[in-house]
Design a protein that fits this description.
This protein is α+β, with helices and mostly antiparallel strands and 529 residues long. The chain contains 19 helices and 22 strands. α2 (35-44) crosses α8.
């Protein structure tokens, strides 16, 4: 699932949030919506930041180094110039007072990303005020078609477009032209309608972030030449929206909110109404785990009905039925009394720093399952067996195990752990028996001191353990950014949680800093959270 370069999503997201907070938050003192500025933003971008003013908070944030490490020197310098020479002028602030400010992020040329700022002037006469400020501050302006090109004192250039009360600004010309050509909000813009619905404009939060996963892959191509492929392909044109609110903290970067999956064919739909569970299967993970995707299923029997419906909607039902039926006939088994009976409530896929991929399910009786699997398995050694029939795990658990067609497996301490190569399982067993586990590292224990470990779906990325995996995935300049201590290397791990809530997900996103002590502490027996 969302592994390997999943760290890309969150790094981009937080870097963009940082720019907004540090440089634009003094533009608005209230938080109201405007259809024209909202539609202009959603028409251009699948990642939108909406903000309000709180100068005291801005002063605190400016004194931290978390955000500054994420902005990058070029964008930091550019946006600071824009703020000090233009946007911080009192007359500009007055003209924008009371209106929400949207910042959409979009891919640009030369492997860069750009931003589009949209908001609403107080009245049409404010356009003349704006032009007067430019002249008064001796900011060079050139008229380019319907736009104004601003050249600030350090030669940084920006483009401004004004249509009626709509104001659009960017360092690139094309996004502004698109913004002022955008019509008013209509019913065809599902993303804009989602943002406007319910309490998505959270006036009690410092700022809100909105994600359209259908368009978000466009940004990923800025960092990775192949975009959302491989483990990240699930992000490719996924019809889902998220609304997240920022929560201030000196020690970490934390967002919470909700996520709506609009596509009935999406595997995640199977979890939107389930009760969150305490994560325990991660107790078996080796200390060099780079990333994992964890799924909790409190009542398998009822969930299996949903899984069967998911197979139908994805045209896989007949294939699954044929696989199960043929295996039953060949070995005189009833597979419905094998995996369903002895599965407990959690499954996981994970990847090691060496790129090896594994999966696991939690069992209620590992010894009994081990006996039942003997007929459909071939021994590799005393501990490891090979499943002889393909896709059995996929038939009973779905998408996470699609790539484990005929895996090797071992059963230990009521966990069935599997991989496509026996050597990978031997690596796992060596770590497990020597208690070299992720839960024994100070970084992982520190992470769950900051956030609940109850969820239905959890995605985790360990920054240090992922460095080798992204070497051949990212463009060189972004790889350096993710590994340097002056960039994303300042952070230890990312965790993204989805908890079912009557058809939607409640979501938590935490990016944690490296704890003071990074040494793992080991005990004589495997620890638990």
């Amino acid at each position: 699932m969302m592994k390997k370069i999943y760290i890309t999503l969150f790094a981009l997201l937080i870097a963009m949030v940082a720019m907004v907070y540090l440089y634009f938050s003094n533009l608005s003192s209230q938080y109201t919506t405007n259809d024209a500025s909202l539609r202009a933003a959603t028409n251009s971008s699948g990642l939108i930041f909406c903000m309000r003013n709180d100068q005291d908070i801005i002063n605190i944030l400016s004194g931290q180094d978390h955000f500054q490490r994420l902005i990058g020197e070029k964008k930091s310098r550019e946006l600071n110039t824009l703020r000090t020479q233009f946007l911080s002028k009192s007359a500009i602030t007055t003209s924008l007072n009371g209106n929400a400010i949207f910042i959409g992020f979009l891919p640009a040329e030369k492997r860069e990303y750009d931003y589009l700022i949209t908001t609403q002037l107080g009245n049409k006469a404010d356009k003349e005020i704006l032009l007067g400020i430019l002249k008064e501050n001796k900011i060079k302006t050139d008229t380019i078609g319907p736009l104004l090109k601003l050249t600030l004192n350090d030669s940084t250039t920006f483009f401004i477009g004004i249509k009626d009360k709509l104001l659009a600004l960017s360092s690139a010309e094309k996004p502004v032209l698109l913004a002022i050509a955008t019509p008013e909000l209509d019913q065809d813009d599902d993303f804009a309608a989602y943002i406007k619905s319910g309490d998505k404009f959270n006036k009690n939060s410092l700022a809100n972030l909105y994600i359209d996963y259908n368009r978000f892959p466009e940004l990923l191509k800025v960092i990775s030449p192949n975009g959302p492929t491989g483990e990240l392909s699930i992000l490719d044109h996924q019809h889902s929206f998220a609304a997240l609110s920022y929560n201030f903290s000196k020690e970490r970067i934390f967002f919470n909110g909700s996520c709506k999956v609009n596509d009935s064919k999406n595997y995640f739909q199977l979890f939107t109404s389930l009760k969150p569970q305490k994560n325990v299967i991660d107790n078996i993970l080796p200390e060099n785990t780079a990333n994992f995707s964890l799924f909790s299923i409190p009542e398998y029997a009822s969930w299996k009905t949903s899984l069967d419906n998911w197979f139908v909607s994805n045209n896989k039902s007949e294939t699954v039925k044929k696989t199960v039926s043929s295996t039953n006939q060949k070995y005189h088994l009833d597979l419905d009394k094998v995996f369903p009976r002895y599965f407990k409530n959690q499954l996981i896929t994970f990847q090691l720093s060496t790129a090896e991929k594994l999966g696991a399910i939690q069992l209620s009786n590992g010894d009994k399952l081990d006996q039942l699997l003997l007929d459909i398995s071939t021994p590799y050694n005393e501990e490891i067996n090979l499943l002889k029939e393909p896709d059995l795990l996929y038939c009973y658990f779905g998408e996470p195990f699609r790539k484990f067609r005929k895996p090797y497996y071992t059963i230990i301490d009521n966990y069935m752990v599997f991989a496509n190569y026996p050597a990978t399982l031997q690596v796992f067993l060596n770590h497990y028996r020597n208690n070299k586990l992720l839960i024994n590292t100070s970084g992982y224990s520190n992470l769950y001191n900051q956030i609940s470990d109850n969820s239905n779906i959890t995605f985790y990325v360990n920054n240090k353990n992922s460095s080798n995996l992204i070497l051949n995935t990212f463009y060189t300049n972004y790889f350096r950014y993710f590994t340097t201590k002056n960039g994303f290397g300042h952070f230890d791990a990312v965790v993204y949680q989805l908890s079912g809530d009557k058809g939607i997900f409640q979501s938590n996103l935490l990016i944690n800093t490296i704890p003071d002590s990074t040494e793992a502490s080991h005990t004589d027996s495997p620890a638990t959270k």
